[in-house]
């Protein structure tokens, strides 16, 4: 069964349409389209990791929304998520390390300059920035605004991600003013 990743759906969030130039006239239209895109690629037995900012709606509405989305759904909590009283998540965590295919994947809502396992080939998937930050090698923004509202597989991500290499890292910090004697 495939594993999918997405972030920053912001279901029910009116202002996100303006902030991110989403082409919808209403939150109802946006939500309907996001659900259609999700269910067009995610099947009931698939796994989905949502990397935060799923919805700003009250718990009851979030639970109803989750019941209409395919897959076993895991939430990595974002700064706008309601989790108390929400039903429909298989797990809720602040961050996670998982394995998908032959990859170790570190999941967090926020982008990091360095992450657990980075120097040993772990990938870092994150959200929060809505495509407004260049990903570091070995990392990728999973935001709905980056991926056209679709959850995506690791195969799709690997076609877009810049590989991490220890040789790409600067030998000296360009911001260091003084050196140790």
Automatic annotation (TrEMBL):
This is Phosphoesterase.
């Amino acid at each position: 069964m495939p594993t999918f990743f997405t972030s920053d759906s912001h279901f029910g969030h009116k202002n996100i349409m303006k902030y991110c130039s989403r082409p919808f006239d209403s939150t109802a239209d946006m939500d309907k389209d996001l659900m259609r895109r999700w269910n067009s690629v995610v099947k009931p037995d698939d796994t989905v990791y949502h990397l935060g900012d799923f919805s700003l709606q009250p718990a009851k509405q979030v639970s109803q929304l989750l019941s209409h989305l395919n897959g076993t759904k895991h939430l990595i909590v974002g700064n706008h998520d309601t989790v108390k009283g929400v039903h429909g998540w298989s797990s809720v965590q602040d961050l996670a390390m998982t394995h998908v295919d032959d990859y170790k994947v570190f999941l967090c809502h926020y982008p990091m300059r360095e992450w657990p396992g980075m120097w040993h080939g772990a990938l870092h998937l994150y959200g929060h920035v809505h495509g407004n930050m260049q990903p570091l090698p070995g990392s990728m923004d999973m935001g709905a605004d980056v991926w056209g509202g679709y959850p995506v597989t690791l195969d799709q991500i690997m076609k877009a991600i810049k590989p991490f290499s220890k040789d790409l890292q600067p030998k000296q910090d360009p911001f260091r003013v003084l050196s140790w004697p």
